[in-house]
Amino acid sequence: MAKSWQNELDKTKIGDFELGEFPWKDPKLSKPTDNDLSKQWAVVYGVWSYDDHKIVRKRITITGPTVDIRLAKAERIIKALKEVAGKVWVGTRPQGLPELRVTLKPGSDIEVSPSLPIAKAAHIYIAFCKKALAPNTFKSYRTGVMKLLGYLERHRRGNLALGKLEVADVNEFLNELITVEGVSNRTRNNIKGACGTFFNYFAKLDRSKKLKKQGNPFEDEDVRMLPFVQNKHQSYSLPQQKQYREACEKLGLDNLLTFCRWMYYTLMRPHEELRRLRVRDVRTKVIYVSGDTDKTNEGDYVDIPLPLELLIQEQKIRDYPGHYFVFSQEGTPGPVMVGPKFFYRRHIKVLEEMNLLDSGHDMYSWKHTGAIALWTATKDIELVRQQARHSNIKQTIEYLRDLGVRLADDDKIHKFPVF
Q1: Residues 309 and 335 in one domain
Q2: Which of 114, 181, 277, 341 has its CA 20 to 30 A from that of 20?
Q3: Number of independent structural domains in the chain
Q4: What is the pLDDT of residues 306-341, one digit of tens each?
């Protein structure tokens, strides 16, 4: 039997690809933590799609009668995929449109070196980001780079090369973001990060390694982050939650209240994810957040807590056609999702009723309110991480701290032994 399984292992197909240099996400094994053979095992990876013009998630299901056989198959598949990393694509490549091809490394007509003008580098980088990143991430990166180009033009240094950008230039640019552009400290810090990522992108492509040796001026110790007050996306206190419910009932905004409850339980983003949620993604115990809507371009899952499950059953969500959007203007699932301002306009009416305008409480606040409530009730940082779909615990800890959450069990300190 071992021989027959080895033959099947050797025949495992990776897929039908053609060569090229394209964006890529490394493969990894996705399996149950307890190695349960009755559950699905798969190797997941990301490959460039000409049809979707972005990295799409792919999976290869792993089967076998034992854990060792499945692990061996996964190892072979991952090794084979890594050998074609960045060299493959899927879909139908447009004929006569070579400009649609996105390269990770500079072509023969682009030489990445310290002498590459920042303006030219910016256009190369923005073109790459537009095709490789989620829409909102792309907008953030583009804004940062365009602000840098605006600074250079303002000082008549539009031809400045990457290698000539000094720490003093960076500090002047960041200072002018506040004094000339009028941005907040928080926005200034975000632009600093976006421009730092831009510089690192070309430092990695510079075959001479000179940019890397020179160091990233945006990450120099003399270029510091500025303090800022967290006054956006303020979470709702328990009394405010009660007032919000009462205001929605008074104004006849049951659909808005339901939308906010879903956000509270799922920790999904209102406009990019929850508003676009379809009936087919509401499954038995989890909700699938598709790669088209989440900010990483990868699909992921959130758990359905009991209160949300009861709400789902009350709304009879799963009885509607799978392609319907969970939220429509009619208050029930429908073929057309609500517009980006549909719930926002109604939310403003509720804030007016509560006298909370300009208080930092917005639609996004319900996501943060849910995260705080989940942590307070469970003190389970891993559970919060999974529901928030953070990549690691550190990100979750920083997220909660930014919300003013005390990451400690207050009762434990009282167990201090008496001396």
Answers
A1: yes
A2: 114
A3: 3
A4: 999 999 999 999 999 999 999 999 999 999 989 888
